[in-house]
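Appendix B. Chain record.
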Amino acid sequence: MVQPYPSGGGQVPEPPKPAPPASVHYAVRLMYAGAVLSVVVLLAALITIGSVRTAVHHAYPGYSASRVRSAALVVVVTDVILQVITVGLWLWMARANRAGNSWARIVASVLFGLNTIFLLLSFARPHASIGAVLNLLIWLVGLGAIVLLWRRDSTDYITATQRP
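Structure tokens predicted for this chain:
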């Protein structure tokens, strides 16, 4: 038995995706800036290991030199691992939000909340001053991106990209 060949006559072409509004465009730019700043934090962590060692020594004067060195190394390695993950998250969120994925704005907001907690916790542990300033700057970039993503025109764009 021969099956009829399907014809494409009854299909409606998909409407083109709308272009992202300025608020999404600037939020994505801020996310890329956050990724760049995270790379700077990573490099600063590697460069300022001596300052971290000094901060650990001041925070824990009873530690031996060997223990101070080990603690500073743990702080720096932890920072490097977190910053590599952070760079990946910034880039992922930038691409996903530019595409208008409805879940991306929520995930970005949750990640910003986690970043806020980590920023507050970072002030409780030994760190180099430049690291604290850079982490605060990254937090401000994230705040700007989140504010832009929750604007009305961003919401309209995300809603328009989700329609079948």
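Further analysis of this model is presented in Appendix C.
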